[in-house]
Specification:
471 residues; alpha/beta; Alpha-Beta Plaits; TIM Barrel; 3 domains; eight-stranded mixed beta barrel; 19 helices; 16 strands; binds ligand C2E; binds magnesium ion
């Protein structure tokens, strides 16, 4: 029931109550309706509408009440924070209806694994919290966490479809990991983030010195939600040099986050967090739009047109609206699609090859260029190279790093160049840091390079200067 409905019914009840000629029976009925209404409203503020489990507020109050009323101070209790792995992916690909049904089934299944005295709540979204009372030792909690994880091994059946989902669990124990509601929850959440860092589908018990990494991830997660609206993201641009013509053939847009407390945060730290919480979709849109706008601005300044490359991570690539989003941005910014390049990794494409081919073909049809990033670090499958409509291969920097002392790396680089050319792809090497590396790549027919030797990623003004001055 919405707040508006609530107000309407309350006003109605009040009007009828104030009506002097009301028969006694009707008046009594109205009083009952009014009581029921109050009950419903109070139920709504303490229970989750979907699963009918207690909600975040209930959990907070229950934990606070329990802590305040602990009779024997030596007793232990545990807070479990459970976050589903990759649930966002299910919502994004199968829709919220299926997502809701899955949450409901998960809640029902988990309910079987708690004891009568424990308290179980839906914290929000795909997060559940548990308060375990009367704990004798940490093993009790570990066993419960393990059983919960194992209970998710069996698939969930929704509309004849079998869905698998895993979870990451964090645990904090009173009195060791906190003596108040806020600290116990914060530490359980930090432990959950460590479980995510350790590859998900596991549980972690909070330890004071474990926190730094997990806490940073937690801090990043919380502050990412506001970063877009507070304009904390920037794009840097790293130029790519054509080794045959010596011209700048394009620039790769690389995101940076100017965090108010942590300073400049590199993408490797926050992109995985944004993938996890789903914000990558909106951040990705911002990246594509900003890069296209920048490219148009350069063209308007009279600079010769170059390609702008943007990176797409796995989650973005699975987004059903990706093609529409890109086509809208191209229309809005009026950038000719041939000046936009999309960088994808093989692993992102391999997640659902059929879908990847369809998306890339649609983009290619629009005129957008497609580049395979970090080539050589994944499966490097010839099958995927043959089937994906690519324009460019980027040899991963790990091969370039030791290339001058490692014959194996040289053999691989030569083979990738030959194969790329055979497939009519442009081949570019990443991470070139020395003149020696550049000369060698030129001698073996590599088409282009990108790396600190030519230029580091530059903020927009400096990239503009480079484009203006490059002869
Ligand atoms: P990437 O797409 O492979 O980008 C190349 C990375 O190598 C960049 O790191 C770049 O600064 C770095 N690099 C370039 N030349 C050299 C060099 O000569 N030596 C060394 N050691 N490094 C060099 P950066 O900017 O930290 O980005 C890391 C990764 O984060 C990117 O790898 C890309 O996968 C991801 N990323 C960056 N921006 C975005 C974005 O807007 N969206 C998404 N989804 N991912 C992004
Ligand atoms: Mg890239
Ligand atoms: Mg790369």
């Amino acid at each position: 029931m919405s707040k508006n409905h609530e107000r309407l019914i309350k006003n109605l009840v009040e009007d009828i109550r104030n009506c002097p000629q009301l028969p006694k029976l009707v008046a009594l009925a109205i009083e009952e309706i009014s009581l029921l209404l109050d009950e419903m409203i109070s139920h709504q503020s303490y229970y989750d509408y979907l699963t009918a489990l207690p909600n975040r507020q209930s959990f907070n109050e229950k934990l606070t009440f329990t802590l305040e009323n602990l009779q024997q101070k030596e007793k232990m209790l545990a807070v479990i924070f459970l976050d589903l792995d990759d649930f966002k992916h299910i919502n994004d690909t199968l829709g919220h209806g299926i997502g809701d049904q899955l949450l409901l089934q998960i809640a029902n299944r988990l309910q079987n694994y708690i004891r009568n005295q424990d308290f179980f709540a839906r914290w929000g979204g795909d997060e559940f919290t548990f308060l375990l009372l009367d704990i004798n030792n940490i093993d009790d909690v570990s066993n419960i966490a393990q059983t919960m994880l194992r209970s998710l091994d069996q698939p969930f059946k929704i509309n004849q479809r079998e869905l698998y989902i895993k979870a990451s669990i964090g645990i904090s124990v009173y009195p060791y990991d906190g003596k108040d509601t806020e600290t116990l929850l914060k530490n359980a959440e930090a432990a959950m983030y460590l479980a995510k860092n350790k590859g998900r589908n596991n549980y972690q018990i909070y330890r004071p010195n474990m926190g730094i990494k997990a806490n940073k991830r937690l801090l990043l997660n919380h502050s990412l939600y506001k970063a877009l609206e507070q304009h904390e993201f920037l794009l840097y641009y790293q130029p790519q040099l054509d080794l045959k013509t010596n011209k700048i053939l394009g620039l790769e847009a690389l995101i940076r986050w100017q965090h108010p407390e942590l300073g400049l945060v590199p993408p490797n730290q926050f992109i995985p967090v944004a993938e996890e919480n789903g914000l990558i979709i909106n951040i990705g849109k911002w990246v594509i739009k900003t890069a296209c706008e920048q490219n148009i601005a350069w063209q308007k300044q009279g600079l010769s047109a170059v390609k702008i490359a943007v990176n797409l991570s796995g989650r973005q690539f699975q987004d059903r609206h990706l093609v529409t989003t890109i086509s809208q941005i191209l229309e809005e910014t009026k950038l000719d699609p041939c000046y936009l390049e999309i960088e994808i990794t093989e692993s992102a494409a391999l997640e659902d090859m059929g879908f990847a081919i369809a998306v890339l073909q649609a983009l290619k049809k629009m005129g957008v260029h497609i580049s395979m990033d970090d080539f050589g670090t994944g499966y490097s499958s010839l099958w995927s190279l043959k089937r994906l409509p690519l324009d460019k291969l980027k040899i991963d920097q790990s091969f370039i790093k030791d290339m001058m002392n490692n014959l194996n790396d040289v053999a691989i680089i030569k083979a990738v160049i030959a194969m790329g050319h055979g497939l009519k792809l442009q081949v570019i090497a990443e991470g070139i840091e020395t003149a020696e590396q550049l000369a060698f790549l030129k001698s073996i027919n590599c088409d282009a390079i990108q790396g600190y030797f030519f230029s580091r990623p530059l903020p927009p003004e400096e990239a503009t200067k480079l484009l203006l001055n490059w002869k």
